[in-house]
Amino acid sequence: MIFLKAISLKTASQAATSFPLNLPLFGPDFRLEFDTPVTFLVGENGTGKSSLLEGLAVASQRVVAGADELAHDSSLASARLLADQLRLSWSRKTGRGFFLRAEDFFGYCRRLSQMHHDLAKEASQLANNYSQQGRSDLALKLAVGAIRGQASQLHEQYEALEHRSHGESYLHFFSHRIVAGGLYLLDEPETPLSPQNQLTFMVVLHAAAQAGSQFIIATHSPILMAYPYATIYSLDTVPPQVVKYDQLEHVNLTRRFLNNPAAYLEGLLR
Fold first, then answer.
1. What's the rounded Cα separation, in Å, for the pair 170 and 175?
2. Is the residue at 112 inside a domain?
3. What share of the chain is helix, strand, coil (3-state, %, to 5)?
4. Mean pLDDT, range 77-90, rounded to an integer
5. Are residues 96 and 203 in the same domain?
6. Does 171 fall in a domain?
7. Does 174 reside within a domain?
8. Residues 133, 137: Cα–Cα separation, whole Å
9. Greater confidence, 230 or 103?
């Protein structure tokens, strides 16, 4: 399912002096069209991949799987400037989905833990207040039950992530939190994953795309880029261009290196 059909700028940003609008990416011809459920954004560091995803997350009001909620995340201050200038073209809006920066996954786990702690504390305080007021057991059960239920769900989510390795908890998160009919914005999701687990992630990605979800992913991983049903945008060109897998410098550089690493390093390190 293609929920978000295209993004462009409301006004030309040639005169913009504030980051990230001053990046070459956000010139007057900036426009991306999404024709497949999976789109990869590829380019060198500094081309604006992360800035674009962050601005898109704000503009589309995604839930942030990170340390802070969207409205309170101070790291997204510059993204809000970009979001104000983005024009989003929808086939149908969806509130499902989330924005995830791989670097902030531990922050998300800490946030779950803190939310569980706060709910447990709230339930305890409410139970104490009801007891002091002489309220009935039924009233106490009704008042506290919902809070404890939420706390229990959060505890289960956090425990499931806490007792796994970084890569395993990351895959567990994706396999349990991605649902059909969502728009997911992922910034370098390969970061904590081994090559084998990147392939496992691709299986999760494919199943979700077939179930009706849409993904826009910034990545440096030649493994993920090989997903055969994706559109690949190169942000190394201005405006961004759709490219084929074998045209990517990421892919060709990795291939040349793996074909003969000793010879490659001999020339590089002499």
1. 9
2. yes
3. 50, 15, 30
4. 93
5. yes
6. no
7. no
8. 11
9. 230
Same structural domain for residues 34 and 58?
Answer: yes
Query: Which amino acid belongs to residue 1?
Result: M
Q: Which residues contact 13 (CB under 8 A, 6 or more apart)?
A: 21, 22, 26, 27, 28, 30, 85
Domain that includes residue 76, residue range: 4-105+183-269
User: Taking residues 91-116, what's their average pLDDT?
Assistant: 74
CA-closest candidate to residue 215, choices 106, 111, 94, 103 = 94
Structure tokens given for 40: 């990869």
Could you tell me if 95 and 117 lie in one domain? no
Threshold 0.85, pTM exceeds: no
47: CB partners within 8 A, 6+ apart: 23, 25, 235, 236
Whether 196 and 90 map to the same domain: the answer is yes
Give how many domains the chain has, as a whole number.
2
Give the model confidence (pLDDT) of 185-243 as tens digits: 999 999 889 999 999 999 999 999 999 999 999 999 999 999 999 999 999 999 999 99
**pLDDT above 90 covers what percent of the chain?**
55
